[in-house]
Structures are given as structure tokens and as C-alpha cells.
Write a structure and sequence with these properties.
Number of helices: 9
Strand content: under 5%
Oligomer: single chain
């Protein structure tokens, strides 16, 4: 039995999906209200600082969801290589066929559009995006260091992995194909050479 979403959760999930699909500036509060099926007063009750608060909370929720997935793959795997590759394959599976390629699929994955907009125009959103990327990198870094990598090398690899995945997602979106992410996965062994 599926858990019934609260009004706050409905608004946040709708806003997250719309921001990631269309960007922060392309989405208005009226569209979020309409698509979430919630009253206007509810939006301002739960998000008194409006659209910026919604975007920051969307970034934080996505950061946590992605972080949980990365942690799951890192903890299940004996080596960072296995964990990173398994995580990339999971992301790539979203792009395997066009039938599954729809706006409902992407409630979290395309982080780059919002991050790009935020970096250029909104310092609070930029910081939230930066914290998300640093959080994900810290998970990779811990796994790398526990596997014998020096801290400096682990930091560089974690940043490179994060950048490669984000770039791979952008290419997969534009090509409607998992191939870019599978190519990223294939390059991870080279990146992890000591």
C-alpha cells in the first residue's frame, strides 16, 4: 500500500520535477499549484519564502535521495570501483528505452539544469547545489580512502567521478540514450588506477 503524500510533500515533489525538467525560471508558482493539485494558500503556508525556498528544499531532498543511493552502492561493494560502476549502471538504466523516458522518471536525476541556473543568479541556491555535490563527493571519498587511496587522490577522483556522472546524465538526456553513462562507467577503472 502506497503512503499517502502530505500536501507539503505533493508541492515539493511537483516543484522538484518541474524545476529539474524546465528550470527554475521557466516555472511559476501557479503551475506548481495547478500540477500538485493543492490550494494556493497551502503553498505559502508550507513554503512562506516562496519559489526560492521550494527550489532549495528540492535541491536538498534530491541531494539526500542521491546520497542514499550512492551510500547504498558503496556499502554493498567490496571496492570503490564496483560501487561507482553499479551506481552509474543504475542511473543509466533510466535511459535504456524511450518508453521509460518521460517526465515522471526524472524527479531527481537531471540536477545540472537547476545547478547551472543557480550558480549564475541565486547565491542561496548555488550554495545548496554546492553542498549537494560536496556531499556526494564525500561519500565516494570515504570509500576510496577506506580502500587505501591517499586523501588528496581520493578528493580528485571523487570530484572527477561526480563531474563525469553529471556530464553523462546531461549527454544521456540530450541523446535519449544510456550510452554516454555506460561510456563513463567504462572509464572508471582508468580513473581509479593508483
Amino acid at each position: 500500500m502506497e503512503k499517502k503524500l502530505s500536501t507539503r510533500e505533493k508541492i515539493l515533489l511537483t516543484a522538484t520535477r518541474l524545476f529539474y525538467l524546465k528550470g527554475y525560471h521557466a516555472i511559476g508558482l501557479n503551475q506548481i499549484i495547478k500540477e500538485s493539485g493543492t490550494p494556493k494558500g497551502s503553498l505559502y503556508h508550507h513554503f512562506p519564502n516562496g519559489k526560492e525556498q521550494l527550489a532549495i528544499e528540492a535541491i536538498q531532498a534530491s541531494s539526500n535521495k542521491v546520497g542514499e543511493a550512492i551510500n547504498r552502492f558503496m556499502s554493498k561493494s567490496d571496492s570503490p570501483l564496483e560501487g561507482i560502476q553499479a551506481h552509474i549502471r543504475m542511473i543509466a538504466s533510466v535511459f535504456e528505452n524511450e518508453e521509460s523516458f518521460n517526465s515522471e522518471t526524472f524527479s531527481v536525476v537531471p540536477f545540472g539544469l537547476l545547478a547551472t541556473e543557480a550558480a549564475l543568479e541565486n547565491e542561496n541556491m548555488r550554495k545548496a547545489c554546492e553542498e549537494a555535490f560536496l556531499y556526494w563527493e564525500s561519500i565516494y571519498m570515504r570509500k576510496l580512502m577506506s580502500s587505501g587511496y591517499e586523501q588528496e587522490q581520493a578528493e580528485r577522483i571523487a570530484t572527477a567521478v561526480n563531474a563525469m556522472i553529471e556530464g553523462g546524465v546531461t549527454l544521456a538526456l540530450t541523446q535519449k540514450s544510456s550510452e554516454p553513462l555506460l561510456r563513463v562507467e567504462a572509464m572508471i577503472p582508468l580513473l581509479l588506477q593508483k
